[in-house]
Amino acid sequence: MEQIQALRGTRDILPEEVTYWQQLESVARQILAQANYQEIRTPIFEQTALFERGIGEATDVVGKEMYSFTDRGDRAITLRPEGTAGVVRAAIENKLQTAGMQRLWYTGPMFRYERPQAGRQRQFHQLGVEVLGSGSPRADVEVIALATQILQRLDLKTLRLELNSVGTKTDRQYYRQALVDYLTPHQAELDADSQDRLTRNPLRILDSKDKRTQEIAAAAPSILDYLGDDSRAHFEAVQGLLTDLGIAYQLNPRLVRGLDYYTHTAFEMISEDLGAQATVCGGGRYDKLAEELGGPETPAIGWAMGLERLILLLQKSQPAPVAELDFYVVSRGDRAEAQALVLAQKLRYQGFRVELDLSGSAFGKQFKRADRSGAVACLILGDGEAERQTVNLKWLNTGEQEELTQSNLIENSEPIRQRILSAANSSPRNL
Ligand code: ATP
Ligand code: MG
Description:
- With about 425 residues, the protein is an alpha+beta fold.
- It has two domains: about 15-165 and about 225-315, Bira Bifunctional Protein, Domain 2 (BirA Bifunctional Protein, domain 2, 2-Layer Sandwich); about 325-425, Anticodon-binding domain (Rossmann fold).
- The protein has 16 helices and 16 strands.
- Strands 1-5-6-11-10-9-7-8 form an eight-stranded mixed β-sheet, sandwiched between helices.
- The site of magnesium ion has 2 residues, from loops.
């Protein structure tokens, strides 16, 4: 029969790679908990209107990349292409703001119909934070500092922080005119999308991935020259606080982000080691989004990291985290096999990590698997041990063996636990 394969732009994350994902998630979870960010989980699909209003119809994400469909009840539905719109919708709908400022984080799959390549998929994963209810530049810097801390803890060093301000809507109206005036004489040289955007959303031309358009955009007027006094003060405060924290940044006045709801600060973290898909984290302030979605005025800032790109970096820079196992249990013969199953389960109740060999093959083969398992010790049960209700414990680092009664191992497990700890520390396990 014809084999069914995963869809283009999707991929399986196999157990060996999952260890990297777990490492990444646990580092992020820990760092965000230290700053009292709370996890939020929102639906993977939402009304299409949420993204049209929250992201903007003139963006690539909404205009070209959404997975949208009509369900059996004739509703217009979209698989979420990003996390912010859903989180803000959830905050408004559940009136989270009545309890004060919200510091939220999320992780999960996102969906965009894009041309798949390394670090660019149709189902990909993001981890993001959103701070709702603070317009302070300190909030901008807090979230940037947390992203920096997460990336540092993962030992990802060659990252560059690029920073910009896109000001307020009013600032952008002045800038927009200046930009259009500059770009119009070059209109014919721009890529087709950018020509189209010249009237609809000229700022987004700065974000174009087309080479010639980028060359033209490089000489465009800078948005930083069009910021009003308040925007300038906010941006200067952000830069001052970043400097206080020792976080280096580069100004990039062409960094406008792909999404329309951003105000003031915009930033990206870019890796030197990823080739074309180099941005691992993107974020900014979006003070107008909550109102756009029918909620109260809510200044807000957040970022999202692309986890596939981070995993690619982790895989390049460090060996896979190893599975940790205390005991590998081998047994042969009906009685021994039954006792081994019971013993393994009782040891798990005691908190040990135990793998039971279910093969029924010769001891020699089972021992080989024990050696490869990474376990600290092997527990052996044959006919003799079953008869005596004992078990042979073999320390895999030294080869030393001892026979214990099964009941003693279960009821008086503390000394063994201590020995496992010191054996595991003295010889790093290799798989
Ligand atoms: P890009 O310019 O790479 O398309 P973007 O501006 O569309 O990125 P955002 O919407 O800001 O990306 O999403 C934040 C992060 O999510 C990106 O910096 C990237 O790391 C990751 N990301 C976005 N789209 C994809 C994708 N299709 N596959 C994998 N990761 C992605
Ligand atoms: Mg994109």
